[in-house]
Design a protein that fits this description.
Elements lengths: L4 H12 L5 E3 L12 E4 L2 E4 L10 H11 L3 E5 L2 E5 L2 E5 L3 H25 L8 H9 L1 H16 L8 H7 L5 H9 L8 H4 L7 E5 L3 H14 L3 E3 L2 E9 L2 E9 L4 E5 L3 E3 L3 H7 E2 L4 H8 L3 E11 L9 E4 L8 E4 H4 L10 E9 L4 H4 L2 H14 L8 E14 L5 H15 L3 E3 L2 H4 L5 H17 L41
Parallel strand pairs: 1-8, 5-15, 9-13, 12-19
Antiparallel strand pairs: 2-3, 4-7, 5-6, 9-10, 10-11, 14-17, 14-18, 15-16, 16-17
């Protein structure tokens, strides 16, 4: 259920083991979920920025297997726009010092020292966690405004789990080390790299959707089914197993699809609501209270050969609504139909049904045009065209009680429906990256194909299983081979 990275990876792994599957995708045109690539008039737009980098060599190898020479190696350039200045991100000491000035730099250093001497014990909120790692002054400058723009809620309401997961291992000292020493001179190699600070990554020539379009083609060629415009509306179960799902097609017709095993990437809140008979009352109540942040991207074509050199820019300026701007031509020149023009993606974070979400497409394009001018990126008349892409439930919210609610749901599903597995970001209500989603899907597919008992919830945010996620050199079965090497289990 779902043709995003997790759903398609599960089907691909099952196909490797000779097991055919059916993939059901609600979208009538695109596969890839959040990692799709939308095309408009020859210009291709990523839904957000999808760097292809993983600490799991198995995931890296899978990307290479699918894309081959179509996978580009890119240098990363990203900056923070704050108070009419651009700050390099990851941090570069000289740039930060010149932009902040010696007085503000000293204040940040003293604030950091104070935080190290007087840390918040047992940090609960994101604000507590980041303050401990950076000091309150740097937190307020570089984290608070942007984070609250993304989530639409106070950093005091967001769980520390989000920060610990997304920027695990990152602190002021780690950022300074990264600023002073190139990664090739830092100890620990690939496993020691903090993902937030990587300076090179891979990217498909035609955007991330190219990866999932190719996987879909391979699946179909091997006799599997990938149905677009097929929305799951009910999940039927009996005698402790899921038996079938009801699908509604783009034309409004409904039909049932049966199976022996079911893998869901559907948002957990929706999944529980689809169960027939209904889930237990505690599970339903817990699911109804899970929260999501929605997202829309205004993709515009700018009549300029060069706009800015970055892959993307974080916009910390509270005077505009845009949160991040992607320059897709700098990810891959093949993303634009005319090299004398540039494709930008302006990302807006919202809640489904609010003012931004319900704004007409033409108004959103006008908003993007005005904000690009306000940020002095281009003139309004240079924006030639625009396309709006809305993504509901793009980000599962980590509030202070999400873990308890998710546990209630997991306990119910594990006991009541053992042939229903949850994988991927929305499927697990886990704000993870593409590689993590793929690894959870690989494990579940291997459990089905090989009878193993890997727990996808023990995949950490570096896409590593708690024992070790790798294929042994002498093993051709496709199984993960446990070793005695412990790996941090952040999941």
């Amino acid at each position: 259920m779902g043709a995003g990275p997790a759903g398609l990876t599960a089907a691909y792994e099952l196909s490797r083991h000779g097991i055919r599957s059916t993939v059901l995708e609600a979208d009538p045109r695109f596969v890839g979920g959040l990692a799709r690539t939308v095309e408009a008039n020859g210009y291709r737009f990523d839904i957000g920025g999808h760097r292809f980098f993983s600490k799991s060599q198995e995931i890296e190898d899978l990307w290479t297997e699918i894309l081959g020479d179509e996978m580009l190696s890119r240098e990363r350039l990203s900056r923070i726009y704050y108070r009419n200045k651009y700050f390099d991100y990851p941090l570069k000491a000289t740039n930060a010092l010149l932009n902040m000035g010696p007085v503000e730099t000293l204040r940040c250093a003293l604030s950091y020292a104070w935080a190290r001497i007087h840390p918040v014990k047992n940090p609960i909120s994101l604000e507590d966690w980041v303050r401990n790692q950076f000091g309150y002054r740097l937190f307020s400058i570089f984290f608070k405004t942007y984070t609250e723009k993304v989530w639409g809620m106070s950093t005091k309401e967001l769980s520390a789990d989000w920060a610990a997961q997304r920027i695990k291992g990152l602190s002021l000292m780690a950022a300074v080390r990264s600023a002073i020493l190139p990664q090739r001179f830092q100890r620990g190699g690939r496993e020691a790299v903090i993902k937030t600070l990587i300076d090179r990554f891979r990217y498909p020539r035609l955007g991330p959707g190219q990866m999932w379009e190719l996987v879909t083609a391979r699946l179909r060629a091997a006799g599997n089914t990938v149905e677009l415009g097929s929305c799951v509306v009910a999940i039927h179960h009996g005698d402790g197993r899921v038996r079938s799902v009801t699908v509604r097609t783009a034309s409004g017709e409904t039909r049932e699809v049966s199976g022996t095993d079911f893998i869901s990437t559907i948002p957990v809140r929706d999944l529980v609501g689809m169960l027939a008979p209904a889930a237990s009352e505690p599970a339903r109540q817990a699911a109804e209270k899970l929260r999501y942040r929605d997202f829309l991207s205004v993709a515009v074509v700018v009549n300029r050969e060069t706009v800015f050199p970055d892959n993307w820019i974080y916009i910390h300026d509270p005077s505009v609504k845009v949160g991040r701007i992607q320059n897709f031509k700098n990810w891959s020149p093949a993303m634009v139909a005319d090299l004398k023009k540039t494709g930008l993606g302006l990302e807006y974070f919202c809640f489904e049904g609010d003012g931004l979400w319900t704004m007409a497409d033409a108004e959103l394009v006008d908003l993007a045009r005005d904000e690009l001018a306000s940020l002095r990126i281009c003139r309004p008349d240079e924006v030639l065209s625009g396309t709006v892409i809305r993504m509901p439930k793009a980000y599962p919210v980590y509030d202070d009680v999400y873990k308890q609610r998710l546990k209630v749901i997991r306990d119910y599903l594990d006991q009541a429906l053992p042939n229903l597995d949850l994988v991927g970001r929305n499927g697990m209500h886990h704000y993870n990256n593409q590689d993590h989603s793929m690894m959870t899907a690989l494990l579940v597919a291997r459990n089905i194909a090989l009878g193993t008992s890997y727990d996808q919830w023990k995949v950490n945010t570096d896409a590593e299983y708690h024992e070790e996620a790798r294929i042994d050199a002498d093993d051709r079965s496709g199984r993960l081979v446990p070793t005695a090497i412990p790996v941090d289990d952040a999941a």
